[in-house]
Amino acid sequence: MSQPWTVVVPVKRLTAAKSRLRGGVPGVPHEELALALAADTLDAVRACPGVAEVRVVTDDPRVRAMARLAGARVLPDPPQAGLNAAFRQGAAGAGGWVAGLTADLPALRVAELAAALDAVRAGPAGVRRFVSDAPGTGTVLLAAPPGVPLDPRFGPDSAVAHAASGARPLAGDWPSLRRDVDTADDLVAAARLGLGPRTAALAAGCLTG
Ligand SMILES: Nc1nc2c(ncn2[C@@H]2O[C@H](COP(=O)(O)OP(=O)(O)OP(=O)(O)O)[C@@H](O)[C@H]2O)c(=O)[nH]1
Ligand SMILES: C=C(OP(=O)(O)O)C(=O)O
Predict the structure, then answer these.
(1) Which CATH number does 5-204 carry?
(2) Radius of gyration of the chain, Cα coordinates, nearest whole angstrom
(3) Where is the MobA-like NTP transferase domain (predicted)?
(4) Which residue has the least CA distance to atom 5 on ligand 1?
(5) Hey, where are the domains in the chain?
(6) Which of 37, 131, 133 to mutate to test the pocket of ligand 2 (most atoms within 8 A of CB)?
(7) pTM of the prediction?
(8) Smaller CB count within 10 Å for the chain: N or C?
C-alpha cells in the first residue's frame, strides 16, 4: 500500500474564530457554531480512507478536547504566529504525504476529500497541489508529496499566492470540499449541500435564505 496521509487542521481560538460569521445566525451562540464547524470537518477527515493521522493545531481548550475525542493528535499554536505558522507546525516531521485543510467545511463529504487526495497522488510527481474555495480566490486544501515542504500561503487571495509559489490547482467537482464557511450566506450555501450533524443540530433551524 502507498504511504498514507497526514492531514493538518488548524483551528483558531473560539473567542476569535469565524469573526465574519459572528452574529450572522441569530439565536446560535457563536463559539458553539465555530466549534461545530470544526467538529464536522474533523469527523469527515477522520473517516477518510488513506488518512492515517489528523493533526489539529490549536490553543483552544474546547477545540483540543473535541479534537482528541475525534481521534486527532493536538499540537499547540506557535505563539502569535498566525495561520501559516500553525500549518507549518502541524506539518513538521510528518514524513509522508501531507495535506493542510481549513476547519470550516461543515458540509464536507468523505468521498470528495478522498477523491481530492487521490487526485494529488495521481498527479505529477513532486508537485504541491491545492483546491480553491467555491469563489475561487481562497484555498481549502493544500497538499505536498513526501519530501516536499507544505509551504502554506493561506490568507487573502491564497489561490493566487499558492499558484505563484509553484503549487498547481486541482480541478475536481467537489462542492462540499470547496464550500468553506466565512459568512452567514456561506452557511446557507453549505446547508443546501447538507450540513454535518454538529452544525445541523445547532444551526439548521435558524438559517434563512
Ligand atoms: N491554529 C490556528 N488556526 C487559525 C489561525 N487563523 C485561522 N485559523 C484557522 O484557519 C482556517 C481558515 O481561516 P479563516 O477561514 O480565515 O477562519 P477565521 O480566521 O476563523 O475567520 P475570520 O475571523 O472570519 O477571518 C480556520 O479553520 C481557522 O480556524 C491561527 O492563527 N491559528
Ligand atoms: C484563509 C483563507 O481564506 P478565507 O479566510 O477567506 O477562508 C484562505 O483562503 O487562505
Answers:
(1) 3.90.550.10
(2) 16
(3) 37-128
(4) 83
(5) 5-204
(6) 133
(7) 0.98
(8) N
